[in-house]
Write a structure and sequence with these properties.
single chain, alpha/beta, ten-stranded parallel β-sheet, two-stranded antiparallel sheet, 10 helices, 29% helix, F-box domain-containing protein
Length: 348
């Protein structure tokens, strides 16, 4: 007799949950929900566990939460800036019907549990159709029907999918707390943000953009605490007002001719902090690979929250600072940062 068949169902479910736990990577959003990840591959995950014996099948079918974390990922490889192609077919590449049936069954088994979803689609479809548009459209349509259950969404998709996302009524996304969005163009971020202003954790990955396409009125995000931006210029800061922001991570790609734009970014960042009035709440600031040199960072850290020099510094409660730049660090600038850190440690 198989000893595993005598375990209580609750114990089996806890074991399955631990074995299938989908641990987020370091780059994932702070609030990304961890759970047993389930894919469309019938030779993996809960599909296999449910075929071992009747007890295991009962354990997998009687828990909605085991099916509430869905990961649908297709391998893709950057060929050059702004161009991403799928490099292999998914197991169900023969058509969208099989994929839709599998996803429908997963959503059915998840019941009414909050959903944590990862959907990674090619940003560009090459002339040799490696991945069918009908597959991506049908999968996203099925997921969209459950938008009111979205708790965490990680979506990498071409613009047509994001256009559908942006047409969602904000009232249907009130449960969404974490969004990780990967888009081709930074300009398309504004309509995405406008429908999910209630998120607590937001990660934006964009590969190029034009500032002229951004709206003049930024979206107010009253609950946003963690913001992670990967882009060329950081234009996303112009599209957001975040009064409760606690952590900001900026990874700005550096191209040779962009080093002269450091003052522009400095102005953008200071405008964002002053407009958001997040000076007191922002405690962690991280710059990686940016076109911001150390002297620009010093200017930001020594700026005041208004024209009145008697007003406290722009970021008076900053407790965590990371800075990575290819530029040479001046001793005076480093001394200033060390003095600021020492001042904070002393309770200033």
């Amino acid at each position: 007799m198989d000893p595993s068949t005598v375990f209580p169902i609750e114990v089996l479910q806890k074991v399955f949950e631990h074995c299938l736990l989908d641990w987020p990577s370091v780059d994932h959003a702070q609030c990304f929900i961890r759970g047993p990840s389930q894919s469309l591959d019938l030779s993996d995950g809960l599909w296999v566990l449910g075929r071992v014996n009747s007890a295991w099948r009962c354990a997998t079918l009687s828990s909605n939460t085991l099916w509430s974390t869905v990961r649908i990922t297709f391998s893709w490889l950057p060929l050059y800036q702004g161009q991403f192609w799928a490099i292999r077919r998914p197991p169900f590449s023969h058509g969208s019907n099989t994929a839709s049936k599998i996803l429908t069954e997963i959503l059915h088994r998840s019941g009414s549990a909050p959903l944590s979803i990862t959907l990674s689609l090619p940003l560009e479809i090459p002339r040799k159709e490696i991945f069918s548009d009908s597959v991506s459209s049908s999968l996203f349509a099925l997921l969209s029907a459950q938008r009111y259950r979205w708790q965490s969404m990680e979506l990498t998709a071409p613009q047509p999918i994001w256009r559908d996302f942006a047409q969602t009524s904000p009232s249907r996304l009130q449960a969404l707390r974490s969004l990780r969005a990967t888009v081709q163009n930074e300009n398309f971020i504004s309509p995405i943000i406008s429908v999910c202003a209630s998120v607590v954790d937001l990660t934006i990955c964009a590969f190029y953009g034009d500032h002229t396409a951004l709206p003049h009125i930024p979206t107010r995000m009253p609950f946003l605490q963690h913001l992670n931006i990967r882009s060329t210029h950081g234009y996303v800061l112009d599209a957001i007002t975040a009064p409760c922001l606690q952590s900001l991570v900026l990874r700005l790609r550096t191209w040779g001719f962009l080093n002269s734009m450091s003052p522009m970014f400095r102005s953008r960042f200071i405008d964002f902090a002053q407009r958001s009035r997040c000076s007191n709440s922002l405690t962690a600031l991280h710059f990686f690979g940016s076109n911001l040199n150390c002297r620009e960072l010093v200017i930001i850290l020594s700026s005041t929250s208004s024209d009145d020099a008697s007003v406290p510094l722009l970021l008076p409660n900053l407790h965590a600072l990371s800075f990575d730049s290819p530029d040479t660090l001046w001793v005076a600038d480093v001394d200033f940062i060390f003095d600021m850190v020492e001042f904070r440690f002393l309770g200033g």
